[in-house]
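Researcher: I'm preparing a figure for a lab meeting and need a structural model of a single chain. I don't have an experimental structure, so a prediction will have to do for now. The sequence is pasted below. Please return the structure as tokens so I can convert it later.
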Amino acid sequence: MSLNVVTLVGRVGGDPDVKYFESGSVVCNLTLAVNRQSRNTDQPDWFNLKLWGKTAEIAANYVRKGSLIGVTGALELETWKDRNTGANRSKPVIRVDRMELLGSKRDNESPMSDSSYDDDEF
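Model: Understood. Here is the structure written out token by token.
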């Protein structure tokens, strides 16, 4: 058996970076700051998030820097070659399957009554 599930709740570090493709696909990249429960540090852990499809569109329309969100997804390792040096590079990314807008409607500036979005529902 194998299991790759990540669940995080935190604040968005910047406005969404959204890209639309000619195929009709849409992708949204976000950073998420999550406070680690520890007595010794107030520094957050930062995570890179990647959202696709309808969930990406919802994030583009309703998520802003500082928004409190919850996400569930899987950990992936993105790899690429550095254009300048040719060196192999990688970074961990959470591929989000489900996102929930948390906090008040005023925080999210959202007129929607249901604040839970799942890629499989659309």
